Amino acid sequence: MPSRLLEPHRAGLIRELVRYSGGRDGSICAWDLNLDLKDEPASENPFDDPPVAKGKTSTTFRSQTQAHTHWVNDIVLAQKNTALVSASSDLTVKIWRPLSNGAEAPQTIGQHADYVKCLATPNSQADWVASGGLDRRICLWDLSGAGKKLDIEVKDEEESEKGSVYALSVSRTMIASGGPESIVRLWDPRSGKRVTKFMGHTDNIRDILINETGDTIMTASSDQTIKVWSVTAGRCMHTLTMHNDSIWSLYSDDPDLGVFYSSDRSGLVVKTDVRNTLGELDDGLSIAVAQENDGVSKVIAYGDHIWTASSSSSINRWANVETGNDAQLPEVYKRHRASSAASQQKRHSLPADSKTLPKKEIPSLSILRISNTASFPTARDSDAAIIYSTSGARKGSEVIMDPEIGAIVPVYALPEETIEGQHGLVKHKLLNDRRRVLTLDTASNVVLWDLLKVCDILALISHANEESVYSYSVFWKEASRRC
Q1: Which pLDDT belongs to residue 429?
Q2: What pLDDT is recorded for position 481?
Q3: What is the 3-state secondary structure (H, E, C) of the chain?
Q4: What dihedral do alpha carbons 193, 195, 199, 203 form, nearest 10°?
Q5: Residues 386 and 428 sit within 8 Å (Cβ to Cβ)
Q6: Residue 449: predicted pLDDT
Q7: How many Å apart are CA 109 and CA 130, to the nearest integer?
Q8: 385 contacts 378 by C-beta, under 8 angstroms
Q9: What pLDDT is stored for residue 398 in this prediction?
Q10: Which residues lie below 8 Å from residue 412, measured CB to CB, with a gap of 6+?
Q11: pLDDT of residue 258
Q12: Where are the domains of the chain?
C-alpha cells in the first residue's frame, strides 16, 4: 500500500520520466511513466476531454527493492536524482541507488530510537539529508555513509511529551519542523540551534514548504488550515481555509510557492494559485481538482498531471487544470478576478501552467473560497456582485452560492490512470505446525499459505464482512490448536 510518492524526474540522461513510491510493505518501486514530454498544442474546445500522451500512455513497472521491514513513511531524491533516501517505521534511514550497476541493495545511513516519519533535503546537490522521528529528534545524515552530521533535540525549555516530528522541510539556511505540539520550529542546519518558533495552529502540523529564498514558510495542519508565515516579520501572514478536513499533504515546484497543491483526509485534492496577488492571498484562485475515495497522504504534480497516494494500494494520476490567465473560469469569476485589488494595482500577465493543459471550463462548484476573509461572487448574479463576508462561521470550502447549492464538485470525477496495487495484509496467524499461516488482507480476503512452498493453499473467505471476519478469528484459534 503506497504511503509516499516522489515527483517524476528524468532518470540519468534518458528522456523518460521515472517516479518512485514507497509502501507499507517496506518496499520501494520505480515506475516508467511513458509520457510524451514534447509540448503539444492544447485543444481550443473547452469541452474536450484531457489530452492523452502520444505513444505508450500506461505506467509500467521499472524496478523494486525491499528496503525496509516496516512501513515506508517518506522518500526523497538526492545527489542529482541518482540516490533515493527512505525513512521507515523500522527506525532506519536508508539510501538506494537504483541507477547503479549491479542492483546495489539499500544501505543504512542512520537510525532513530523510534519511528522515522519524515525526510527533507535542501537541493539535489546536497551531501546530507535530514530526518525527523517520533523520538523527538532531527538528525542530519551524510549521504556517503559517514554517519550523523548533526543531532537536534526538539523541545522547549519545559519538557514536552509531544515533540515528535511529523513534518520537515529544509532550505540552504534553515530547517523547519512541526508535529502534534502545533508549533513550527526553525533551526540552524549548521549549529543545530533553534532560530525561532511560530505558534498559531491548533492541531498536528502535517506538512511544511519553504520558498526558495527562505523568507516564507507554508504549513498544513489537522486543524483544517494552511498558514503562510513570514520569517522576516516573525508571524503568520495568512490563514487559508479552503479545506473542510484535516490537511495531510502540500506540494509545490514553484520557487515562490505561487502555485501549490494540497490534499486532505476526506480525499479532496486542491490546486491554489496566488501569483500576482501582491501579498493579498485572498485574491488567489483555489480549485477542487479531484476527489479520492480515501484520505490522500501525498499529492505531487508535474506538468499536465497530478498523482495521489492514499491508504489504498493504488496510485492515481489525474489531469491538471489551468489556473493562469488562460484559465477557463465562469464569466462571473473572471470579472471578479479582474476586479481584485491586486489586479487593479498591478496587471501582470500570468504565465500558462503548461502549453498542453486542456482549456476545459472550470465549473462554479469547483471553485473554493480561499479563506474566511476572501470576497466571493455568487454564481447566478449577472452583474457579478460581490459578497463580502468576514464571518468565521463558514468553512473555507463551503462555496458561497445560492442557499440550495453548496456541494463541492471537483473538476475531474475520474483519474486518467490507476496503477493497481495488491491488497495489503492486516493480520496473520501462524499455525502450530510452524508451516502454515492464515492471513487477512485489506479486501477482507482470508487465505491459508504454505511457507515452505511459498504459495497459497486455499482462499477461505473472499470479501468477508466484519461479522464473518470476527467468526473466522475464532476458527484461527481452533485451527491453531488442532494443527
Answers
A1: 87
A2: 54
A3: CEEEECCCEECCCCCCEEEEEEECCCEEEEEECCCCCCCCCCCCCCCCCCCCCCCCCCCEEEEEEECCCCCEEEEEEECCCCEEEEEECCCEEEEECCCCCCCCCCEEEEECCCCEEEEECCCCCCCEEEEEECCCEEEEEECCCCEEEEEEECCCCCCCCCCCCCEEEECCCCEEEECCCCEEEEECCCCCCEEEEEECCCCCEEEEEECCCCCEEEEEECCCCEEEEECCCCEEEEEECCCCCCEEEEECCCCCCCEEEEEECCCEEEEEECCCCCCCHHHCEEEEEEECCCCEEEEEEECCEEEEEECCCCEEEEECCCCCCCCCCCHHHHHHHHCCHHHHHCCCCCCCCCCCCCCCCCCHHHEECCCCCCCEECCCCCCCCEECCCCCCCCCCCCCCCCCCCCCCCCCCCCCEEECCCCCEEEEEECCCCCEEEEEECCCCEEEEECCCCEEEEEEECCCCHHHHHHHHHHHHHHHHHC
A4: -40
A5: no
A6: 85
A7: 11
A8: yes
A9: 42
A10: 50, 289, 290, 318, 319
A11: 95
A12: 2-418, 425-482
**Mean pLDDT by 10-residue block, N- to C-terminus, for the chain (483 residues)?**
54 61 90 69 44 59 92 92 94 91 85 97 90 96 93 77 88 94 95 94 97 96 98 96 97 96 97 92 94 94 92 91 88 79 53 60 91 75 38 41 61 92 80 87 83 69 52 53 52
pLDDT at 56: 44
Side chain identity at residue 150, one-letter code: L
pLDDT of the residue at 446: 86
Q: pTM for this structure?
A: 0.82
Q: Is 109 exposed, middle or buried (0-12, 13-18, 19+ CB in 10 A)?
A: buried
Task: Look at residue 435 in the predicted model and tell me its pLDDT.
Answer: 87
Domain covering 2-418: architecture: 7 Propeller (2.130)
Distance (Å, whole) CA 254 – CA 242: 20
Contact between 219 and 181 under an 8 Å Cβ cutoff? The reply is: no
| The C-alpha cell that represents 415 in the structure block | 483519474
- 76: nearest Cα among 31, 111, 14, 28: 28
pLDDT at res. 420: 84
